[in-house]
Amino acid sequence: MEERIEQLRNSTQTAGLYASRIAGFFDVSIEHDGNGFVITGDTKEVLIAKDAFLALDKLSADSEIDETDIQYLMNLARDGRLEEFLKTSDEVFYMTPSGRAVKPRTLGQRLYVDSLKRSELVICAGPAGTGKTFLGVAMAVKALKSREVSRIILTRPAIEAGERLGFLPGDIEEKVNPYMRPIYDALSALLGQEMFERYYDKGVIEVSPLAFMRGRNLDDCFVLLDEAQNTTPEQMKMFLTRLGVNCRACVCGDFTQIDLPKGIESGLKDAITVLKDVDGIKIVSLNDSDIVRNSLVARIVKAYEDARQR
């Protein structure tokens, strides 16, 4: 079978690079004949390759894409889910001060963001690089700026210090900083360093270790618990029972990075089992197909999964 594509939004050179990647992935031949690109091969493969080619051309003309995006789109085309993805691919929900558009880049991320919009509590588990923390913080910042909440509280367990930070040198901020650096980086990217510092100094944004949540009542805020796989069931229950009036919460973690002592159950696993049928709670599972970091990360995660299965 042969299919011709003549009208593309990208340059011939850029389209040629995509053609090379698609031809290798779908086992088809793609040639440029001076007027357009001609795809030849098995009928089914040609039609899928054409859809992938057009999708890549459209998305790359509208926004910057990388190797991870290209691989993801080709996999979606192979699985017959490309049309579903394209319906939501333009949904930008936040713009950073530097002009970066923040939007879901995978179907799993789309479900995650939609859940954060609609549910009071979202519990999300997935491997490194799937955007759990960054998208959660971005939704918190969006809620703050649209005045849906009056403050943001971000917390994570300081498991390496056993939640006992007193022996570390410096004041409490210096003790906490090493554990909170990923969250600080996300806030700086989303708000700009100056705005982040201003909100932080005023207490509009609070970043604290999980141990400091005990006894509090969290009203009118967006609260995010990161690295939740390193909580115990007791800590998780303590955190979840802090949620107050007009409080939205996001709990996220990675089961492949549990640092709890041997024999202690993860509070994240326990919460997913206990709360799976509770109204108002949405549980989202991301996987290696949702990894949007360097494509090497997806291959590393898969290698470790394969090794564990063996």
Descriptive notes:
With 310 residues, this protein is an alpha/beta fold. It folds into two domains: 2-86, Ribosomal Protein S8, Chain: A, domain 1 (2-Layer Sandwich), CATH 3.30.1370; 94-309, Rossmann fold. It has eleven helices and eleven strands. The chain has a six-stranded parallel sheet, sandwiched between helices. A hairpin with a 4-residue loop joins β2 (29-32) and β3 (37-40). Residues 161-165 have low confidence and may be disordered.
Task: Provide key terms for this protein.
Rossmann fold; elongated; alpha/beta; 11 helices; 310 residues; Ribosomal Protein S8, Chain: A, domain 1
Q: What's the topology here?
A:
Layout: E1 2-5, H1 12-26, E2 29-32, E3 37-40, H2 43-62, H3 67-79, H4 82-86, E4 94-95, E5 101-102, H5 107-118, E6 121-125, H6 132-145, E7 151-156, H7 172-191, H8 193-202, E8 205-209, E9 221-225, H9 233-240, E10 247-253, H10 267-275, E11 281-285, H11 295-309
Parallel strand pairs: 6-10, 6-11, 7-8, 7-9, 9-10
Antiparallel strand pairs: 1-3, 2-3, 4-5
Helix pairs in contact: 1-2, 2-3, 5-6, 6-7, 7-8, 9-10
Please summarize what this structure is.
This protein has helices at 12-26, 43-62, 67-79, 82-86, 107-118, 132-145, 172-191, 193-202, 233-240, 267-275, 295-309, and strands at 2-5, 29-32, 37-40, 94-95, 101-102, 121-125, 151-156, 205-209, 221-225, 247-253, 281-285. It is of the alpha/beta class. It folds into two domains: 2-86, Ribosomal Protein S8, Chain: A, domain 1, CATH 3.30.1370; 94-309, 3-Layer(aba) Sandwich (Rossmann fold), CATH 3.40.50.
